[in-house]
Structure formats: structure tokens, C-alpha cells
Amino acid sequence: MFKGSLVALLTPMRADGSVDEPALERFVDWQIREGTHGVVPVGTTGESPTLSHAEHKRVVEITIATAKGRVPVIAGAGSNSTAEAIDFTRHAKAAGADAALVVTPYYNKPTQEGLYLHFMAIADAVDLPIVIYNIPPRSVVDMSVETMARLAAHPNIVGVKDATANLTRPLHTRRACGPEFCQLSGEDHTAISFLAAGGAGCISVTGNIAPRLCSDMHLAWQAGRLDDAMAVQDRLVPLHDAMFAETSPGPVKFAASLLGHGTAFCRLPMAPLGAATQARVRDAMTAVGLLN
Questions:
Q1: For residue 12, what are the contacts with CB-CB under 8 A and spacing of at least 6?
Q2: How many Å apart are CA 116 and CA 9, to the nearest integer?
Q3: Which three-class secondary structure string do you get for the chain?
Q4: Catalytic residue status for 57
Q5: Regarding the domain with residue range 4-223, which homologous superfamily does it belong to in the CATH classification?
Q6: Is the bond preceding residue 129 a cis peptide, omega within 30 degrees?
Q7: Is 133 a catalytic residue?
Q8: Catalytic residue among 3, 57, 116, 133
Q9: Active site residue: 3, 57, 161, 253, which one?
Q10: What CA–CA distance (Å, rounded) separates 210 from 243?
Q11: Tens digits of per-residue pLDDT, 36-94?
């Protein structure tokens, strides 16, 4: 259903912290013109934890309106409140999203049965494709393969964004959920390895600033040009490292600001990027060829 280079969009902000809607429109359009295969607003990289509900919904609406059907839009719709996640998912459907990305509930620490009931409630409430977002480092909970297989039986639950960085996981998920279940990597460093293990694409942070390179890498893989795909991957490794030198999305927003896409501002409790990390980001961007 979804494949290739999908980008976990940052949310451009002005220096005062307000959402820069014109910059968001330009950014989404630039992503698509650079070859990005799908866009994912208001996830972790989009600072969803610090956006108000109204801002969250507005970012989704702007992204869909700007994409104009050129690429799929998978709208972030997760929450640690099931009722809130249903509301965001209903809004995503009404706004015209192609799917919703729903993160495993954070802080609450639900059991596997709680995870199952949470996602089933959303899938039953809204007739929209749902991609499970499994990211144990941020959510604390890890959805088991067995729970995911139970959920995959629901016609509205179509795939997973797997940010475990565990390269045995897609193998087991494929066996348990079937080859039609859409597996997307949520970890830039392992994108090619994830594809080799049965994945269909990657929801990328680095794609915010290197959309053409990320797109080219996936297109090369899809065409069977494995040496070309590996060459791009090798080129991107220092950039991936720099994007996570401090907590994301701090580094990628700073990098995007150097390319003219909004400011480097992140809302508290995200701290401004340290000077050493700024230098590391600049050096990596220069080495990859994004800056002169």
C-alpha cells in the first residue's frame, strides 16, 4: 500500500514558536518535487506532543491540501488516550488523509491486551487504513509480534512503522502477519537492511533534508540496482548520525533551517541545539553535498 521514501515531516515554526503555515506549504511541495513518495505530518518529528489539538489538525489539513493527491499522506493520529486517538483519526479521514499513523500509547504502559483493545477501538471507530507505530524507546511498551498479528486481521489495520531497529522483527512480522502487511522502517540507519528483511519502505527523519537522495536510494532498491542503493546508503550514514546527535527533531530542524525551511526553533522542553552538534550537522551536510 505504501512504499519507498516517506518523510516524517518536521513542523516549521517561526522564532516565536508559532507554526509557520506558509513555510509548511512550501516544505511539503518541495518534498514532493524532490521525489518523496509519501509524507507523514504530526509524528514525533513534527513535534506532535507540543502542538495543540487545533494546531495538530491544521497541520494535517495543510499537508493534505498541499499534496493534492500527488503522494499519499499518512496523518499522525496517536495518543495515550484512546478517545483522543479516535478523534484525531476521524479528523484525518475527514480531511482526506490516505491513512493514519497511530503510535503505541506512551506513559500509560498498557499490557499487550491493552494495546490490542486500543488499536481495535480505533480501527472499529474509523474506516481508514491504520499504520501501527511501534517505537519502544519513546513509548516504553513494545507491541509483540503476536499482538500485531491479532490486529492485522482487522481490515483497517494495514501495516506498521517499526522503530525497534531489531532486524529480526520484520522477518517474524512477515511470517505472522503475511506479505501484504505493509512494513515500514522507522529507523534511517537500517532502511536497506529492513527492505531486505521484507519491508516496503522507510518513514524517514533524514528525508526532511535529503529527500532526493533518500528517494533515489529506494528507487534503486526497487529497480534491483543494489550496488547503487548501497552506495547512497553509505553516503547518508554520517547524515543519519548527525540527525540523532541530540534528541530529534532538534538536529533536523536546525539542518532544515540551513536550507531555508523555517527556523531551528523547537518548543520546550526541547532545548536549542548545542554548538558542537550544530557544527556536526553542518559538517555532515557539507560532506553529503547539501551545503557548499
A1: 19, 20, 23, 24, 27, 256, 261, 262, 263
A2: 27
A3: CCCEEEEECCCCECCCCCECHHHHHHHHHHHHHCCCCEEECCCCCCCHHHCCHHHHHHHHHHHHHHHCCCCCEEEECCCCCHHHHHHHHHHHHHHCCCEEEEECCCCCCCCHHHHHHHHHHHHHHCCCCEEEEECHHHHCCCCCHHHHHHHHCCCCEEEEEECCCCCCHHHHHHHHHCCCCEEEECCHHHHHHHHHCCCCEEEECHHHCCHHHHHHHHHHHHCCCHHHHHHHHHHHHHHHHHHCCCCCCHHHHHHHHHCCCCCCCCCCCCCCCCHHHHHHHHHHHHHHCCCC
A4: no
A5: Aldolase class I (3.20.20.70)
A6: no
A7: yes
A8: 133
A9: 161
A10: 11
A11: 999 999 999 999 999 999 999 999 999 999 999 999 999 999 999 999 999 999 999 99
> Contact, 185 vs 202, CB < 8 A?
yes
Return the domain boundaries, the chain: 4-223
Taking only the tens place, the pLDDT of each residue in 119-162 is 999 999 999 999 999 999 999 999 999 999 999 999 999 999 99
Preceding peptide of 249 cis, ω within 30°: yes
Cell digits of residue 2: 505504501
